[in-house]
Amino acid sequence: MALLYRSKSYQEHTINNSLNKNRSRLALVLLMLLSSPMIMATDVPVIAAAASVKFALQEISEAFQLDTGKRVRISYGSSGNLTRQIQQGAPFELFLSANTRYVAELERRQKTLGPGTVYALGRVALLTSKNSSLLLDEQLNGIKLALQNGQLQRFAIANPEHAPYGIAARDILQKLNLWVLAQPHLVLGENAAQAAQFASSGAAQAGLIAYSLALAPTLQQRTRYLLVPENLHQPLQQTMVLLNNAGDTVKSFFLYLQQDKARTILTRYGYTIPYR
Amino acid sequence: MDWQALSLSVKLSLVTLAFLLPIGIFFGRWLAYRQFFGKSLLQTVLALPLVLPPTVLGYYLLVAFSPNQGVGLWLVNTFGATLVFNFQGLVLASIIFNLPFAIQPMQRAFAAIPREIREAAACCGMPPRQVLWKIELPLAWPGIVSAMVICFAHTLGEFGIVLMVGGNIPAETQTIAISIYDRVQAFDDHSASIMSFSLLLFSMLTISITYWLAERNQHTHV
């Protein structure tokens, strides 16, 4: 106790000093954080896009930046989840959905500027890792055989609850009478890209994924794929729509996506351009 | 390495800490010294984020602050601000998520201060505020620092809530944990592995710092 008191004035002095110093230092750090360069980045508009269009859109946005000097940020997810985020006030200015349904839903809720535009048609691919011995064929007979003899334990698709490529995958399996057989083996990706990741990494032995993802260079190196006939599923109408708070940059990006340069890139990723 | 996501994560962690430091000291000290009706209930509520799945917390925040209804609608009408899909929302979520990690170590640190020391100071005429600044805080600081270190690391690694409340927007809500998830889905294993390894190293560093502090704390009190 005596010790405590003898050192009191000294302690008081030093603690007070260091507290004041620390306090001003903390204030400085906070000030720096508030004025950080991050604020500049938030001026760049954000686009919500279906994960299936990831690689094509990456190239298109880079070309857009080269041609116009303007930048966009892109948030990828499943079309269904992005729709929900938009309904709940996410600050997106443009939405690229992998089907028309979600765009129609947003239009009905008055979240969009006008109706959506179909900018491309998507296809589905059957994919497996490069060293897999699975037989890939248009009627999925190889898959059926592998499911029956236990060679295929896990089959990846996107979640049909909220991902259009998941819905298409379910269409295909149902049309070929494989749904019941495949169902216990399905692994659901949160979106098309995650399903592709499952199937390409070997975590799942095969999967039905977006053709545009199968054509991505990094994926092509380690996988084999087969284009599934388009009559086996509902058309995947890639639909985009301007959202209520769309600014000029996003409006010009919306037009850019319908011009030749963007269309060439989309075609290279396996999309068909609808007749206009 | 996604530097933008990393700096965003660090920024989120620091801002969260700036709020949690006073909150933790206040509640930690209060819970350590006072007995009152409903204390155990309050402690239960404050400890909830320890066991609650992040998606549950994320879901409630998303619903509560969605600008379509209730609190969220009121916020939009009053301040023109939303708390979902932006940085402010992430800060709020991180504060809630980290409450037990901030309060519990501080509570233990305050509780470990011998009562006689505080009483002696009060007896000799030291006002309560000075007792806090000059006696309690210096004695409790290892606990306070370790709480802050844990909260920092915890915020850096947060995933479920950030994805749900934040919505994966680059430079605004795409933290390092979300960026790793994103890179994996983009088949970019190289970046994902670099970022994951950095977070692993950082987490190990954090844990060793807290252990070191805890050991020091023990020595000073024995």
UniProtKB/TrEMBL annotation, chain B:
<dbReference type="InterPro" id="IPR011867">
    <property type="entry name" value="ModB_ABC"/>
</dbReference>
<dbReference type="Pfam" id="PF00528">
    <property type="entry name" value="BPD_transp_1"/>
</dbReference>
<keyword id="KW-0813">Transport</keyword>
<feature type="transmembrane region" description="Helical">
    <location>
        <begin position="139"/>
        <end position="157"/>
    </location>
</feature>
<keyword id="KW-0472">Membrane</keyword>
<keyword id="KW-1133">Transmembrane helix</keyword>
<keyword id="KW-0500">Molybdenum</keyword>
<feature type="transmembrane region" description="Helical">
    <location>
        <begin position="12"/>
        <end position="32"/>
    </location>
</feature>
<protein>
    <recommendedName>
        <fullName>Molybdenum transport system permease</fullName>
    </recommendedName>
</protein>
<comment type="function">
    <text>Part of the binding-protein-dependent transport system for molybdenum; probably responsible for the translocation of the substrate across the membrane.</text>
</comment>
<keyword id="KW-0812">Transmembrane</keyword>
<dbReference type="InterPro" id="IPR000515">
    <property type="entry name" value="MetI-like"/>
</dbReference>
<dbReference type="InterPro" id="IPR035906">
    <property type="entry name" value="MetI-like_sf"/>
</dbReference>
<keyword id="KW-1003">Cell membrane</keyword>
<feature type="transmembrane region" description="Helical">
    <location>
        <begin position="194"/>
        <end position="214"/>
    </location>
</feature>
<feature type="transmembrane region" description="Helical">
    <location>
        <begin position="44"/>
        <end position="62"/>
    </location>
</feature>
<keyword id="KW-0997">Cell inner membrane</keyword>
<comment type="similarity">
    <text>Belongs to the binding-protein-dependent transport system permease family. CysTW subfamily.</text>
</comment>
<dbReference type="GO" id="GO:0005886">
    <property type="term" value="C:plasma membrane"/>
</dbReference>
<feature type="domain" description="ABC transmembrane type-1">
    <location>
        <begin position="6"/>
        <end position="213"/>
    </location>
</feature>
<dbReference type="GO" id="GO:0015098">
    <property type="term" value="F:molybdate ion transmembrane transporter activity"/>
</dbReference>
<feature type="transmembrane region" description="Helical">
    <location>
        <begin position="74"/>
        <end position="99"/>
    </location>
</feature>
